[in-house]
């Protein structure tokens, strides 16, 4: 994570603490609502952070010359091998071969090391971007997903290998649906 991203995150967190302490109190002269001003500052800081992350993702896509489709939520995906199996749907257990890396290229998780990933589609327990992406696939499909931080582990990271505000790059194969 760059220093500018870290600085934005720290500033947003400081403002959040201040807003929660300030409540809806007005200044003594009663003319300006402090929480409204702070809310506007937080919105502005968040928009800047989202813009910076989107630029970073777009630069990554250009650098690797990937052809990606973007969904309304901001998930980018490319199904580079089409399987012929059943289409993923909520309530099924997805079984995946995968590698997860940060936008820096560092691999953080992999089925080669950690084993296959299994989860029930639509029940949570995984990143919302992964849930969204799986629903685009059939058994046998291989795809790349670029999951922005708001669809991944967000402001906190996963408290293990994924740092706060991290964009995730998934390379997956939907092995089966149970």
Q: Which key features would you list for this structure?
A:
35% helix; 7-stranded antiparallel beta sheet; alpha+beta; Chitinase A, domain 3; 178 residues; 2 domains; globular
Write the layout of secondary structure elements.
Elements: H1 3-22, H2 34-64, E1 69-70, E2 76-81, E3 93-102, E4 107-110, H3 111-114, E5 117-120, H4 128-134, E6 142-147, E7 168-177
Antiparallel strand pairs: 1-2, 2-6, 3-4, 3-5, 3-7, 6-7
Helix pairs in contact: 1-2
Can you write the helix and strand succession as a string? HHEEEEHEHEE
What is the CATH architecture annotation of the largest domain?
Answer: Roll
| Classification by helices and strands | alpha+beta
Q: Helicity, in percent?
A: 25-40%
The proportion of residues in beta strands is 15-25%
Biggest sheet features: 7 strands, antiparallel
What is the count of structural domains? 2
What fold name goes in the CATH topology slot of the largest domain? Chitinase A, domain 3
Strand count: 7
Q: Tell me the overall shape.
A: globular
Query: Rg, please?
Result: 19 Å
Through-space gap between termini: 37 Å
What is the average per-residue confidence, as pLDDT, rounded to a whole number? 88
Characterization of this structure:
The chain has helices spanning 3-22, 34-64, 111-114, 128-134, and strands spanning 69-70, 76-81, 93-102, 107-110, 117-120, 142-147, 168-177. The two termini are 37 Å apart. By secondary structure, the chain is α+β, with helices and mostly antiparallel strands. Strands 1, 2, 3, 4, 5, 6 and 7 form a seven-stranded antiparallel beta sheet that branches. It folds into two domains: 3-64; 69-177, Chitinase A, domain 3 (Roll).
């Amino acid at each position: 994570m760059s220093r500018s991203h870290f600085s934005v995150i720290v500033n947003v967190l400081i403002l959040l603490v201040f807003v929660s302490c300030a409540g809806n109190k007005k200044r003594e002269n009663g003319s300006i609502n402090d929480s409204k001003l702070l809310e506007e500052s937080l919105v502005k800081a968040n928009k800047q952070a989202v813009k910076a992350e989107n630029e970073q993702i777009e630069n990554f896509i250009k650098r690797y010359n990937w052809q990606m489709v973007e969904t309304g939520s901001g998930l980018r995906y490319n199904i580079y091998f089409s399987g012929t199996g059943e289409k993923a749907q909520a309530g099924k257990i997805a079984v995946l071969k995968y590698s997860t890396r940060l936008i820096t290229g560092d691999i953080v998780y992999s089925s080669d090391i950690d084993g296959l990933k299994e989860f029930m589609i639509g029940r949570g327990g995984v990143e919302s971007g992964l849930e969204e992406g799986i629903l685009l696939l059939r058994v046998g499909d291989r795809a790349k997903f670029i999951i922005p931080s708001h669809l991944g582990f967000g402001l906190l990271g996963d408290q293990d290998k994924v740092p706060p505000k991290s964009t995730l790059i998934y390379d997956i194969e939907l092995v089966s649906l149970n």
